[in-house]
Amino acid sequence: MSERSIKNDALNDLDYIKSLAEAGANTPLLGGRIGLMWSCLLIPTLFIHGLILMQFIKIPFNYIGFIWMTFGILGGILTFTLGKSLDKKPGAFSSINRTEQATWTATTISMFGFAISITISVVIMQKPYWLYDIILAFAFGTYVINYYVLANLGGQKRLYLPAILAFILMVIIVINLGNPIIYIIAAIGVIFTAVIPSLISLKYEPKDVI
């Protein structure tokens, strides 16, 4: 085999690999239903949290932890159930969908650890209660990271907008730590940073493989 032939074969292989990468990057994201589920649980939880702090709902503050625990357990069960339904979707194991799953899983684990750390600081170390508010900022910070990665690597340019909105919400929350209104703002913010992007993903989600 001549040197020119070897070079041509190598170039063809590179073109082929590039085409596969581009095809994988442009595969529709499949996390819409899971994102929408978490959003539908998160919005009322945030509203209830804020209304309890503002004493519009006459429930002791101690019950807030129970509400969030219910949110986490229910969300975890539904995530497992909905995740199983994605296995037959075209592109379920594409690079971009594996990236989506990996980034959201990693940031969720980080957020869980962060929340546990804050809880220990407040309950055991007697730190200020408003430290819980930082979890909100941390959560929107994870939105910024995840959406930017998917928009940049997966060609999902529409995700730049919710990334920007999540960044703005993160800043607003940090500036207003200790003010219960941030939970109401966060609940409304979730509509634009999670519900709408999830609905768009569902719109472009392919049918199951037969």
Protein model, in words:
The chain has 210 residues and is mostly helical. Helices cover 75% and strands 0% of the residues. It is built from 7 helices and no strands. It has helices spanning 3-25, 32-53, 63-84, 95-123, 133-154, 160-175, 181-203. The protein is globular, with a radius of gyration of 21 Å. The model is unreliable at 16-24 (pLDDT under 50).
Q: Strand-residue fraction? A: under 5%
The N- to C-terminal Cα distance equals 43 Å
Shape: globular
What's the number of extended β-strand segments? 0
Radius of gyration over all CA atoms, rounded: 21 Å
Average pLDDT rating: 85
Total DSSP helices: 7
Largest sheet: none
List unreliable stretches of 5+ residues: 16-24
Q: What percent of the residues sit in helical stretches (DSSP H or I)?
A: over 70%
Which structural class is indicated by helix and strand composition?
mainly alpha
Taken in chain order, the helices and strands follow as: HHHHHHH
Quick structural summary:
With 210 residues, the protein is mostly helical.
Topology:
Elements: H1 3-25, H2 32-53, H3 63-84, H4 95-123, H5 133-154, H6 160-175, H7 181-203
Helix pairs in contact: 2-3, 2-7, 4-5, 5-6, 6-7
Could you list some keywords that capture this structure?
210 residues, mainly alpha, 7 helices
